[in-house]
Amino acid sequence: MSSSTEELRIAMETTLTTFLENYHIAVRDKNASLLSAVLSPDCTRHLKPSSFVDAYPFIKGAETNAEYKARMTPEIALMEETRAKILESAVDPANRTASARAEHWTKIANREPTTLEICWFLDFTDDGTKISRVVEFIDTAVATRMIEDMLKQGYRKDENST
Predict the structure, then answer these.
(1) Which domains, from first to last, does the chain contain?
(2) Who's near 153: CB < 8 A, 6+ residues apart?
(3) Is this prediction's pTM over 0.70?
(4) Half-sphere exposure (CA, 13 Å, Cβ side) for 152?
(5) pLDDT digit string (tens) for 114-126?
C-alpha cells in the first residue's frame, strides 16, 4: 500500500471513529451539532430500513445535517448517556467508503439502558476527513422501544405525529 493510500486509510478510520464517538460527546454536552462535526456541509443521512421510517412520520428517510440536528436535539435532551463500541469495520480508500457494525449503549432518563446495534455505511470526501453520505441501518426492535419510551416522556408531544 502506498504511503498516500495508507494516509488516506488512517484519515478515514479516524473520521469514522470520531463520527461514532461524537454521539457520546453530543449527549454529554447536550449539543446535537456535534453529530455533524465530521460531516461535509452537503452530507445527507439515510435511515434504513424504510419500514421503520414509515412507522414514524416525524422521521425522514433522508435528512440534511440541519434536519438531523433538529430531530436529534429533543432526543438528546432525554438521553443521560450513550456510548458506541465498534464491533467490526472496513475501510476502502480507493472508493472512499467505509462500513462499521457498532453497538450503541444508551440510557434514556427514567428508563433501563438499551443496546442498539447499527450498521453504518459511509462515503467520504476525497481527503477522508469528512463524511459526505451516511446510511444508518438500525436494529428496529430496540429502536422502536427507545422511541416509544421517549414518546411516553413527552418527546414530540407538541406535534401531531403520534
Answers:
(1) 3-152 (3.10.450.50)
(2) 78, 108, 109, 110
(3) yes
(4) 10
(5) 898 999 999 999 9
Burial of 114 (0-12, 13-18, 19+ CB in 10 A): middle
- 9 Cβ partners below 8 Å, 6+ apart? 1, 91, 93, 128
Rounded Cα distance, 147 and 81, in Å = 16
| Contact status, residue 45 vs residue 136, Cβ threshold 8 Å | yes
Give the whole-angstrom CA distance, residue 115 versus residue 108.
Answer: 11
Q: Phi and psi at residue 126, in whole multiples of 5°?
A: -55, -35
Q: In whole angstroms, what separates CA 32 from the centre of its chain? A: 11
pLDDT digits (tens, 9 = 90+) for 4-42: 999 999 999 999 999 999 999 999 999 999 999 999 999
155 Cβ contact list (under 8 Å, min separation 6): 74, 75, 78, 147
Hey, what's the cell of 153?
Answer: 416522556
